[in-house]
What does this fold into?
Amino acid sequence: MKRSEGRSVVAMAAYRAGVALKDDRRGTVADYSRRRGVAHAEIMVPEGCADWLGDRETLWNHVEAIEVRRDAQLAREINMALPHELTHEERMSLVRTFVKEQFVSQGMVVDFAIHAPVPEKGDDPRNFHAHLLLTLRQATPLGLRRVKTRAWNSDAMLISWRKAWATHQNNALRGRGHTARVDHRTLAAQRASALSRGDRFQALALERAPELHVGPSVRKAARERAPASKDQAHGPVRRTHARKKVRRMVRYTQFDEGSRAEFNTTRLRSNAGKLGLRAAKVQRHLAKLKTRRVYYAARLRESERAETSSEDRTSAWERTLHARRRAAQVQWLIAELDRLFFQLLGLREDQLVRLTVWSNRFRYRRQDLTHLRLTGRSRPR
It folds into this structure.
């Protein structure tokens, strides 16, 4: 969270906690007390630190005061999706345990808020999530240290936090008897892991393209105007041989293919089509295996009758044993392919549901933009 982006950590904390906080540096009051969807908010502090660090307004105004640079980093924010299968109390316990183990134990002050979906705003009913604001300096009995802890900025630390969060969620889900599991790795990494352990069925189900994240600011911009790509400068400021200050220019107009929502719609449609083709292929394989099961069942009955009537009982017994083994193998394959078939259908259904959601958002946005062009004002929401 950078001051160079024009942001205030006091306003940021007020918005996430759904409260009103006075911003001493700006001389304003950030009032978000009417914000809906804030299920819980609290501050967790290390043992033995100053008591005033537990007060939200005092804490973040102090952070604003000790950071004097115009490009200062004021705080670190981490957003975490929460399992919708758990109850509110179970989600709170999960977040508190994770925050205490991973952040507070290292000396950070953590201001976290749990947000619940608001049906009136069109939120997905499963969209429970938590916002964590972390201090960049360790807490002491006198306040925050003068020097920031740079080790907290490492990529290795972020990866370890992601892995630990997945582990905490899976332990909570398993402990409450839920079958859902979380994997923090990319789809490609999960598929490679499935192939390495010989799980071809799971690898097949993971063979789909990921979506792009579309945040609230992008959704709001899409409602107000039609999205359009433009070139933007990114990265640090560098000096050329002519001593001019320049930044790297990213040519979005050259490689963008529509908005993020359009990209996700195309990708979801492609994923659903591929999953449907795989499900049809598995269904054809199942039909062949069921025919083989009938064949081996008939062979088994014949060999069993031969055991009682034939003089060569040894040969008949061997044929019976072979038929039983083959029938068991076919039955196992049928069970595994049945599981894969319904898994593919579930994944396809999920992609189609998400496609419907994105398509509806497009339709509403197009209606709003048409209304705006005809009347000169936006439709009331």
User: Anything to note?
Assistant: The radius of gyration is 29 Å. Residues 186-222+247-381 form one domain.
